[in-house]
Structures are given as structure tokens and as C-alpha cells.
Amino acid sequence: MCRAPGWTPPASHSAGDKLDFMSPPRTDTFDLGALRLTSGEGRHVDLGVAIEPFSFGGETYPVAPEPVPVRLDISRTTGDGYALRVRFEASLSGPCMRCLEPAALTFTVDAREVSQRSQARAAQSPKAAHHGRGRAKHDEDDSDELTSPYVEDGVLDLHAWARDALALAVPANLLCRADCAGLCPVCGANLNEAGPDHGHEPAPDPRWAPLSELHFE
Questions:
Q1: Inside any domain, residue 211
Q2: Would you write out the chain's pLDDT as a tens digit for each of its 217 residues?
Q3: Number of structural domains the chain divides into
């Protein structure tokens, strides 16, 4: 587990604050329990997280900046539950998927997660859990349990959450511009530069090829 060294609870920020960080500490996981929040209490934390490059069609698209500054909002719910929100901006750069020219796109990410154990499971004693007593009752109450794949034993996997959230924001095609015309299928010219007059004579119909072999005296 990597916790931000020398971390102290930051001052509270309003929800509308602009994300403007100054060299936030880098962390991949965050110990939510270390905040010692009570039910209904919340805190904002500014951190930095490394996000690995994405790979599309054999091309690599690195993520900038490194690390990516993120704002993590943490609210304690009842029991062992947390309501979480992560916000950040990140850019991907690499070849345009149509014309192969350099492209750089910036994405704004705003993702939320809830981790809330059922009341019955939270109240279950470790001894009872070990022996399986009351298991049927707890199975019935699992319907009110909200689990997050990024929270385990009170520790948030911020690295995995940030990367998955960014992946959901990335479109299927990364383009240098929305109206990119791509490459000419005949000669490979960049149609963004060639202009609307670019074209080629249509290829002759191969069915008429034998006629070219006829010679008339």
C-alpha cells in the first residue's frame, strides 16, 4: 500500500472549486480509514496518480501529465460505508486514427463510487462469521449491500479507479479533429491537406480488359 508521505488532512473546498493542484503527492492506494471520519462527515483530498499509456490498434497513447492530479471527495455513510468521487483532467496523445497525424485530446473525468456493507453483515461478529451462524439471514440482507471493486478492507485502489474512469471517457476513435477526412484510399494522401478537389480517374472495368488485346488491321 502506498500512502502519501507526511499526509495531513487538507482544508475543505467547495464542490465548485476549480481543479488547480500544486504538485500533489503521488499515491496508488488510499487508506480511507486513516481519515477517521464519522457518519455524515466528508473530506477533500488532492493527490496524484500515475496512469499507464493506452494501446489502440498497436499504437501507444501516453497519458499526461505524470502524475495526473486528482481530487478525491470522501464522505462517510453509515456503518463501514463510503461515498466517493474522483475528478481530474488528463490528455492522451498519439497518431490520429484516420490520417495518422499527431493528435492530442484532453478529457474531463468525474466518477463516483459507493461502498456500503449491509447492516446485517456489518453487525455480524467475527466469531459468528467464522462459524457461519446466521448466514441465511445475511444472504437475505445482501440486497442492500453496495460493493465497489476498488474498495477492499477500507483501502481505495485509486490507481485502478482513475484508469478505468478515464478509459470510459475515451471515444472509440481518437482523431486530430472531429471532421478529419482521413487518407485517400488510392494514393494515401492526407485529405485534410489535399482539399476537396483531390481525386483519381476511375479504374477501368477489368471485364473489358480482353478488348485491349484485340488488334484491327
A1: no
A2: 444 444 444 444 443 444 444 567 889 999 999 999 999 999 999 999 999 999 998 999 999 999 999 999 999 998 789 999 999 999 999 999 999 999 999 999 999 999 987 654 545 544 444 444 333 344 444 555 788 999 999 999 999 999 999 999 999 999 999 999 999 988 999 999 987 788 888 877 778 777 777 776 6
A3: 1
Query: How far is the C-alpha of 203 from the C-alpha of 113, rounded, in Å?
Result: 57
User: What is the full DSSP assignment across the chain?
Assistant: ----TT--PPPP--TT-----SSPPB-S-EEGGGG-PPTT-EEEEEEEE--PPEEETTEEE-EESSSEEEEEEEEE-STT-EEEEEEEEEEEEEE-TTT-SEEEEEEEEEEEEEEB--HHHHH--HHHHHHTTTHHHHHHHGGG-B--TTEETTEE-HHHHHHHHHHHHS-SS--SSTT---B-TTT--BHHHH-TT---PPPPPGGGGGGGG----
Residue 204 falls within a domain, yes or no? no
Asked, for residue 43, whether it belongs to a domain, the answer is: yes
